[in-house]
Task: structure prediction
Amino acid sequence: MGLPQRQPGPSVLLLLVGALIWPSSCVSLELIPYTPQITAWDLEGKVTATTFSLEQPRCVLDGHAGVANTIWLVVAFSNASRDFQNPQTRAEIPAFPRLLTDGHYMTLPLSLDQLPCEDPEGGSRDVPLLRVGSDPGCLADLHQPPYCNSPLPSPGPYRVKFLLMDARGSPQAETRWSDPIALHQGKAPASIDTWPGRRSGDMIIITSILCSLAGLLLLAFLAASTACFSSLWWPEEAPEQLRIGSFMGKRYMTHHIPPSEAPTLPVGCEPGLDPLPSLSP
Result:
């Protein structure tokens, strides 16, 4: 006579059902001991008003990622990073517009072969970095994928992490969140004080000197222009008649016949002299 089979109790049934319906999101992912950070390369514009440049996670995911895996960058506002839930399928991957509503999105999908361990051969021309927010026209292009890398809309601060997902979109591993990254914030035009009364003394002195130099240059230009135009109206070698008077007529010769010689008169018959007394009776 065999022993009667023992039916599972209610508690065992609840455990089995709970294991079947337990969401996979609650399963803890493998945490990779890596913290994303701004690139250490000496570059200009590593952080701007709409972008920032991260170092590539080279040789970090080699033991975790496969050929079919995809490495995603998660970007979130610093105060919304703790509320981010890893997507379980590719359809749940948040695109850039979700940043303005939910405070986070995912972008820059990379494969493992795009993150080599070797240093770049081209020097500073091929710096291994990831520039977040470097595609200003991605949202306007309908042919672009929805996970585009659009410029960031505000100074932040932001936090980022790398998420490793398989071909089905299921998360496999993740890195730590970065430290808060604040973008450069320009000064509002309305806050710029243009009243000259609040300018410094050095600025006033420099402005006065520049105005004086401008006046001197203007006077020199007027003097040079006056001398140039006066030489056109009154040349240095003026004709003789212009130097003698304002007007002088020309001398005309009435004829070309030389004057005739006056007749020789006898002595004592010159005009204006009394005639000599006659000696005849």
Q: What stands out?
A: Residues 1-6, 10-26, 242-247 have pLDDT under 50 and may be disordered. Residues 201-233 form the longest helix (33 residues). The beta strands are 30-32, 52-55, 70-77, 104-110, 129-132, 158-165, 171-175. The helical segments are 10-21, 98-102, 201-233, 240-244.
